[in-house]
Amino acid sequence: MPQERLYDALLDALTATFGRHPGFRATHAKGLLVNGTFTATRIAGSISRAAHLQGQTVPVVLRFSNFSGVPATADGDPMASPKGVAVRFALPNGEFTDIVAHSFDGFPVATPEDFLGFLQGIAANVATPPDPQPLQTFLANHPRAQHFLEAPKPAPRSYAGLEYFGVNSLLFINRKGDQLIGRYRIEPLLMQPSLSDAQAAAMHADYLQEEISARLSKGSLKMRLVLQLAAPGDAVEDGSIAWSRQNEELELGVFSLDALEPAETQQLAQQRLAFSPGRLLDGISLSADPMTLARDRLYQRAVLRRQRP
Ligand code: HEM
């Protein structure tokens, strides 16, 4: 299938699952923007020459989100997980670069083609009348997709209290030309225990937004950016396979989350922002993982669709 048709089919399958909600993202529809800064560690500058990793503090905007493509999905609903975080780093020369991560270490599939099979199965399963057969067949042949669906994804107490995984590996290049392959993780300084299913179900629909708002009114919040390095033999081209937590990790820097985007501009700013995991700067480039480039192209098409009335 030509790539453009593949991306359109992926977006169609998301719309068939969640419905069309003009102005909102096809997935991760409900979100919250927080403004802050990022300061890289010394080690970050030694593994990549990318401008935002050289140690000077740069402004960032983070968008925390729920998985569902239905904007009204409550924060504690199982469809609201995994949670997402998208980060935009703004550089002094006007350039910017993004990270897009979610709160599950892995993905159901390795390629956009397989994701289409998965999404079309889900869309058929929620259609009226439902047809569970395509999803059952897909899952029987894709055990990691089955694992993704069945793995617990408990609701957090805070958007800033859980780990987010970049999933798709990237190549980091320093000034000498040395290269490393790694995957991002964004994590709290102190992990918070998650809610039980019963606790999550009893929470207010916007409890995660309210929690961040209340905490920021008392001061800044910190999160860390970590790079998990590939170990020999790790599948760098397959984001559906998590790497061992024993792999070497480097702390790339610390985010300071300082203030919510003001209420008057919150929704419009979310609509205007278009994050992409493929928006990279010199010093970070694509790895053998095909998903980053596909996501980059696909998210651009998604933005055009969601901006249509
Ligand atoms: C082929 C695979 C994928 C497809 C088809 C897909 C689809 C989409 C679409 C259509 C959007 C909305 C984009 C927009 O309107 O701005 C989106 C956003 C998002 N995706 Fe994916 N995605 C894929 C892979 C992934 C992976 C691997 C992750 C986790 C690392 C991820 C996490 C997110 C997050 C967190 C957002 C919200 C970004 C924001 O706040 O703007 N996606 N995705």
Question: What does this entry look like structurally?
Answer:
The protein has 309 residues and is of the alpha+beta class. It has a single domain, classed as Catalase core domain (Catalase HpII,  Chain A, domain 1). It has 9 helices and 10 strands. Strands 1, 2, 3, 4, 5, 6, 7, 8, 9 and 10 form a 10-stranded antiparallel sheet that branches. α3 (112-126) runs antiparallel to α4 (133-141) and α4 (133-141) packs across α5 (143-150). It is globular and about 55 Å long. The mean pLDDT is 97. It comes from Pseudomonas shahriarae.
CATH class designation? Mainly Beta
CATH architecture: Beta Barrel
> Based on CA inertia axes, which overall geometry fits?
globular
* Average pLDDT taken over every residue: 97
What is the radius of gyration computed over CA atoms, rounded to a whole number of angstroms? 19 Å
Number of domains: 1
Number of helical regions: 9
pLDDT < 50 stretches = none
What is the third-level CATH name, the topology? Catalase HpII,  Chain A, domain 1
Distance between the termini: 29 Å
Q: Name the CATH superfamily classification.
A: Catalase core domain
Could you describe the largest sheet, including whether it forms a barrel?
A: 10 strands, antiparallel
Sheet-strand content, in percent, reads: 15-25%
What structural class results from the helix and strand content?
alpha+beta
Order of helices and strands: HEHEEEHHHEEEHHEEHEH
The counted number of beta strands is: 10
The distinct ligands, each listed once, are: protoporphyrin IX containing FE
Function: Has an organic peroxide-dependent peroxidase activity.
Cofactor: heme
Organism: Pseudomonas shahriarae
Binding site for heme: 299
